[in-house]
Amino acid sequence: MISDMKTTPIERKIEHLKQQLAELGPIHPGSLSEQYKDPQKHGPYYHLSFTWRGKGRTRFVRSERLAEVRQKVANYKRFRELTDEWVDLVVELEQQEREQKQ
Q1: Hey, CA dihedral for 69, 49, 53, 13, is it positive or negative?
Q2: Residue in 59, 57, 56, 55 with CA at minimum distance from that of residue 46
Q3: What integer pLDDT is reported at residue 5 of this predicted model?
Q4: Which of 15, 28, 76, 94 lies at a 20 to 30 A Cα distance from 68?
Q5: What are the phi and psi torsion angles at 2 (to 5°)?
Q6: Burial of 20 (0-12, 13-18, 19+ CB in 10 A)
Q7: CA-CA distance, 42 to 94, in Å (whole number)?
Q8: 3 state DSSP class of 50
Q9: How big, in percent rounded to 5, are the helix, strand and coil portions of the chain?
Q10: pLDDT digits (tens, 9 = 90+) for 16-36
Q11: Is 7 exposed, middle or buried (0-12, 13-18, 19+ CB in 10 A)?
Q12: Above 80 in pLDDT, residue 38?
């Protein structure tokens, strides 16, 4: 861990983001949908839809795994938010360093 006395506020935020990322747990991209088979309205049936490496996919999710898959999808969403924030901070830090050198 980096000493707080030698780091900038941005660097401390980045370290905090790294810690949050390490604690996320299992992740999976996508979104869940609930569907019924018409006209009898059988269901609900759950599908996980996602695109990975340019290829769209849909998977059936059993109801007993629904909570687990929901958590993985929520973790992935949080992963994306944290990494976007990390990149924003790195760009801001780089900008500050450039300004200090001028």
Answers
A1: negative
A2: 59
A3: 59
A4: 15
A5: -85, 140
A6: middle
A7: 56
A8: strand
A9: 50, 25, 25
A10: 999 999 999 999 999 999 988
A11: middle
A12: no
Q: How far apart (Å, rounded) are the C-alpha atoms in residues 63 and 3?
A: 47
Tokens of 1: 């861990």
Question: How far is C-alpha 98 from the geometric centre of its chain's CA atoms?
Answer: 30
Lookup result for tokens 């990149």: 87
83 residue type, one letter: T
Write down the pTM of the prediction. 0.82
Q: Map tokens 């599908």 to a residue.
A: 47
Query: What is the rounded distance in angstroms from the CA atom of residue 20 to the CA atom of residue 75?
Result: 11
Question: What kind and span of H or E run contains 44?
Answer: strand 42-52
Phi (first) and psi of residue 3, to 5 degrees:
-65, 135
Integer Cα distance of 56 and 53 in angstroms: 8
